[in-house]
């Protein structure tokens, strides 16, 4: 109980000390404001002019362009005849903005299907609007066919406009189904990054206490374990405070600007698993930060070894390419089992996969939890000796001796 009280005293001291720091408070509010500034900046420069009308090029082999033009009078398109062949449509659309090519031929009347090519800039509602052109083609069907029951049924089926563009085959990264998985994953990633980046201040905290030579005074009434654990808990709470401020400032703006049920996608049972991974990731990195921070005489003179440790939270970026290309592949699985890359890789994988591999998740979380326990023990040994060493940065050899002691 005494150790827990001492640990909580250190945690409260770290929280109060940072909350009174002007630089921490400024960063706390300035970061989300900068994010919102970049998010809202395009709206400030957006023109109030009406968007340009969709250019619709019609390759008419049936001589019905005038009728099509009359049918399209209710739209805001810029209708124009073209002689471009269907094989050239996609290439032509690469240099067009908000355009479409419609190809009308004998097959359009015979099978009731008209081929349409669009590009990524084409208005999202175009494929619904283009149905207004079906009237003249249905009239041609009636003229060419008798009114036998079979032919009447063919006319009744109407004309279907099919989007043959490559973009139409894939819903894209931000389709509705994908967003249901990405939103919880993105929130978990923000949680982890927020508390990890705040936790990186443990480096500075431990080395500053050594530089100011107050570590001995602090340790006269506390054990090194109390001090280390208190720092980890304190900076964890600071990270959560930072996250709450970010959410309070940014989320209302996102809900206002984005027409999407964000909260419905976010508050799902899977979020608990993602948050567990994020917290374990923080504890692992925090153990490294506090242990290695105690080996540095001054954070500004960190050696190559200490600098390498500071880069470990960014190691999951090594697996971004393989995970995006194949979230279930070998490299994605490997990244899930390596403790330093596991938190980031797992969160990214689970944001992309439709079905979660629960066996892999269980193994990865178990490895991560065991790694946290091991590194906390090792960090305690390093911290105990390193916090009282003055004048120089510890070498890897010296750190190894402390661990073995």
Structure description:
This protein has 405 residues and is an alpha/beta fold. The chain has 2 domains: 2-41 and 173-404, no CATH class; 55-169, D-Maltodextrin-Binding Protein, domain 2. It has 20 helices and 5 strands. It has helices spanning 2-19, 22-44, 65-71, 89-93, 106-111, 126-129, 134-144, 149-157, 176-199, 201-211, 215-219, 224-257, 262-266, 270-293, 304-310, 320-325, 330-337, 342-352, 358-386, 396-404, and strands at residues 55-60, 78-81, 99-104, 113-118, 160-163. The chain has a 5-stranded mixed beta sheet. Helix 9 runs parallel beside helix 14 and helix 9 runs antiparallel to helix 18. The radius of gyration is 31 Å and the shape is elongated. Mean pLDDT is 76; it is low at 167-174.
Any key phrases for this structure?
alpha/beta, D-Maltodextrin-Binding Protein, domain 2, 20 helices, 63% helix
In brief, what are we looking at here?
This protein has 20 helices and five strands. The chain is of the alpha/beta class and 405 residues long.
Write the layout of secondary structure elements.
Blueprint: H1 2-19, H2 22-44, E1 55-60, H3 65-71, E2 78-81, H4 89-93, E3 99-104, H5 106-111, E4 113-118, H6 126-129, H7 134-144, H8 149-157, E5 160-163, H9 176-199, H10 201-211, H11 215-219, H12 224-257, H13 262-266, H14 270-293, H15 304-310, H16 320-325, H17 330-337, H18 342-352, H19 358-386, H20 396-404
Parallel strand pairs: 1-2, 1-3, 4-5
Antiparallel strand pairs: 3-4
């Amino acid at each position: 109980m005494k150790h827990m009280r001492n640990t909580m005293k250190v945690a409260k001291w770290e929280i109060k000390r940072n909350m009174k720091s002007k630089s921490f408070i400024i960063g706390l509010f300035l970061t989300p404001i900068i994010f919102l500034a970049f998010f809202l900046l395009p709206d400030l420069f957006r023109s109030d002019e009406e968007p340009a009308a969709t250019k619709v090029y019609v390759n008419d082999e049936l001589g019905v362009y005038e009728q099509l033009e009359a049918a399209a009078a209710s739209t805001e398109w810029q209708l124009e005849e073209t002689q471009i062949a269907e094989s050239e449509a996609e290439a032509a659309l690469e240099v067009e903005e908000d355009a479409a090519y419609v190809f009308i031929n004998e097959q359009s009347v015979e099978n009731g299907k008209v081929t349409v090519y669009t590009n990524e800039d084409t208005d999202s509602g175009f494929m619904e609007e283009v149905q207004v052109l079906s009237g003249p083609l249905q009239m041609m069907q009636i003229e060419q066919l008798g009114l036998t029951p079979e032919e009447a049924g063919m006319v009744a089926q109407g004309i279907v406009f099919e989007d043959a563009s490559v973009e139409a085959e894939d819903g894209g990264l931000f389709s509705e189904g994908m967003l249901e998985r990405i939103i919880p994953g993105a929130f978990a990633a923000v949680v982890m990054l927020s508390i990890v980046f705040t936790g990186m201040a443990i480096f500075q905290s431990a080395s500053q206490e050594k530089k100011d030579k107050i570590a001995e005074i602090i340790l006269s009434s506390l054990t090194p374990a109390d001090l280390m654990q208190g720092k980890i808990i304190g900076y964890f709470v600071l990270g959560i405070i930072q996250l709450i401020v970010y959410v309070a400032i940014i989320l209302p703006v996102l809900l206002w600007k984005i027409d999407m049920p964000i909260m419905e996608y976010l508050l799902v049972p899977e979020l608990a698993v993602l948050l567990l991974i994020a917290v374990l990731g923080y504890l692992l990195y925090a153990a490294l930060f506090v242990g290695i921070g105690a080996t540095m005489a001054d954070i500004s003179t960190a050696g190559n070894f200490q600098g390498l440790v500071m880069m470990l939270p960014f190691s999951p970026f090594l697996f971004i390419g393989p995970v995006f290309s194949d979230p279930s592949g070998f490299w994605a699985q490997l990244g899930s089992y390596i403790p330093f890359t596991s938190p980031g890789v797992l969160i990214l994988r689970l944001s992309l996969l439709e079905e979660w591999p629960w066996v892999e998740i269980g193994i990865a979380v178990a490895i991560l939890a065991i790694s946290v326990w091991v590194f906390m023990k090792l960090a305690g040994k390093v911290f105990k000796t390193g916090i009282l060493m003055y004048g120089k940065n510890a070498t890897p050899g010296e750190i190894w001796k402390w661990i073995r002691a």
